[in-house]
Amino acid sequence: MDRCFFLRETVEAQFTPLPSMELDCNDEVGMKRAPQNDLPIPSSEVGPNEKGEISTQGQHWDDKELAYERKIVRRQLINKLNHLNFQDLTVTVVFKHVKFPRTLSFKAAPQPCHDKHLTCSWVEHVDVDQIMESYQFQCLYVPSGQQLLKVEPELKSITSARAVLILPEICREISIRKIHRHSCSGVAVYMFQNSALFQGELVDYGAFQFRISVRTIPPQTYHWIDVRSPATIVFARGQNTLFSGECHIVKKEQGVKGHQLILEPANRQVRRFAPKEFRSTRQKISPSPDAIFSHPLFGKTINLKVVDISGSGISVEEEEHLAVLLPGMIVPSLELRFADGSILSCLAQVVYSIPHREGPGGAVLRCGMAILDMAIEDHKRLLALLHQASDARAYLCNKIDMDSLWNFFFETGFIYPQKYEFIQANKEKIKATYEKLYHHSPDIAGHFVYQENGRILAHMAMVRFYENSWLIHHHAAIRSSGNRGGLMVLNQVNRFLNDSHRLYSMKMDYVFCYYRPDNKFPNHVFGGTARNINDRKKCSVDKFAYFHHATKRVPVPDLPGNWHLNPADEEDLLNLQTDYDDRSGGLMLHSLQLLSGQTNIDDLSDAYETIGLRRSRQIFALKRHDRLYAIVVANAADLGLNMSDLTNSINLLITNEKHLTYEIVEAVIARQSRLVGLEEIPVLMYPRRAAEKVGIDFRTTYCLWSMHTHGNADLYLRFLKRLLKFIKV
């Protein structure tokens, strides 16, 4: 070995539990370390030359410290050694000092074995002549799952390249009844204590204690490390942070390579998100899926059975002495594997690990893991499973028979005669759009269906229409005294919002919908929510005048000489925001993504394009003598994406009604409708009173309901709980 490295364990860290640690349960959620005496410090009588050859120095193991569980015959031992060779794994060869109570251990690779003779090749260079002057061969430790095999063979020969051993007839499987630690490599450690930063590496890891090696940078000294004070520890691999949290220093050791610290985490529970009144519904499903991941700190594949699952997380159980989950630890890629072979992947974080029950092998811990992010398609598949598990008639993003869907829309009156008159001319295009939305499970849309024996009883849908905003629409239900399907699909949407809005991939900072104020149900649900919350920065309603405009004049009329319609710039959007804040102070500009610096929808357009749909937007400023009078938004999408075609429309956001005339508005709309490619187009004009002043004959008022999802979902669900009191929100 090139350098020496003093440790207190005899066996390498990947096999060795903590030397003398016992755990008892705290009354809260943490674990406290029982008092323990420090191990004797090994003698320092080691010559300079000998230091260069020492691999690992630790306490001497005797029969009192090992629990021997069963005997293993030579045939079984040979099979285990050959398996280690197949996996390119190592054994540990231990030498005992002939005079002092200390040992050395070296990693060795076992060669193929078919009889009692075993050859082990040293993993690194060993100066055997120097070692054998003061040490004698003691034993061999062979890893066997979570146990060790202690083998006491006869040493036949030894060189600087290998050792040849004669295996005994019987060896013993041993269990050190402590918490296992696993050797680590490539994990950087940053330790903060009293405004000082120390850097190092993670040496070995256990869920209750881990060992780090730290170095100092002048003027730092190791005396700066105070074992009585807590320290904040950060684990990182490359650019990814894997853990950060407060820890207590259990022990400080000094070795040739630097100082090593044994630490234990201070908390067994962390808070990833602010607490919620309405938590995601946890469900037990049968058969239960497996949670499988490569441990981010030591690389071993971990497989744990899921106890319960929701749209925002899972809980699992693990035996305390085999625990590998550390509260606060990030798991970059966790797979949920179901019995049918389907796999859902996510980014997860351990949020708690607490004693739960006693098992055959000792204490069992219940561990919670929060889903931090998940691909939209995977998350919808998970929620679809959970919705079905709670109600067999509740479907999310299922493949619908399109004839049944169209029959439902007409039967419920959702497509009423006036609406059909508008969409009839483009019915084939609209059918094609719905085929893509309902049969290709796109990331930009979702639908919720309540059906029985194939008959659709209720329907609701969502579509991501702006970069971080989802439109709720298409709510319809069969009217009958016994059908509560309309409320059931609303509840499905509520669960979807509650489970999904925190996921980055979902991009659901805002949800919004349009409804007519004379429509009692949405006015009660959405309008009632806004009135109940009574904070327009959290939830707001704004009224628009709605009308259809058909361009009759050819060519398109020109604007008067002092009026100009040009692409809007950032200053125009800032002026719009100032005017809107004075008028309303609500969330309209947030949900419609019309704030300065936040108007780009290129990523959204690409998402639509992947399934053959169109989504574009252009924003213009109407000015007179360089003074802003209106922001004009031309939204273009496939016909029928929204049945009222509010997604394929012109928005006129008036900032100054003075000097505006019907002719000017008509000229602006005509220009924009040609830009969109339609002769007749829906127009939404805000504020509604501006349409009245200009003299536009509009027959319909639409309310735009907007809600900021982050931090406000509880307020929304609390209000709806009264409406949905007979079902679980």
Structure report:
It is a single chain. With 729 residues, the chain is an alpha+beta fold. It is built from 15 helices and 37 strands. The strands form 5 sheets. The protein has a 12-stranded mixed beta sheet with strand order 26-27-28-29-30-37-31-36-35-34-33-32, with helices on both faces. Strands 3, 4, 5, 6, 7, 8, 9, 10, 11 and 12 form a 10-stranded antiparallel beta sheet that branches. Strands 14-15-16-19-18-17 form a 6-stranded antiparallel β-barrel. Strand 5 and strand 6 form a beta hairpin. Helix 9 packs across helix 15. The longest helix is centred in the C-terminal third of the chain and has 16 residues. It is elongated. It starts with 22 loop residues before the first strand and ends in a 6-residue tail after the last helix. The N terminus is likely disordered.
Assign the structural class, choosing from mainly alpha, mainly beta, alpha/beta, alpha+beta, or little secondary structure. alpha+beta
- Terminal-residue CA separation: 63 Å
Mean pLDDT: 85
Low-pLDDT residue spans: 1-66
CA-based gyration radius: 34 Å
Into which percent range does the helicity of residues fall? 10-25%
Largest sheet: 12 strands, mixed
Number of helices: 15
| Overall outline | elongated
Structure summary, number of beta strands: 37
What proportion strand? Answer: 35-45%
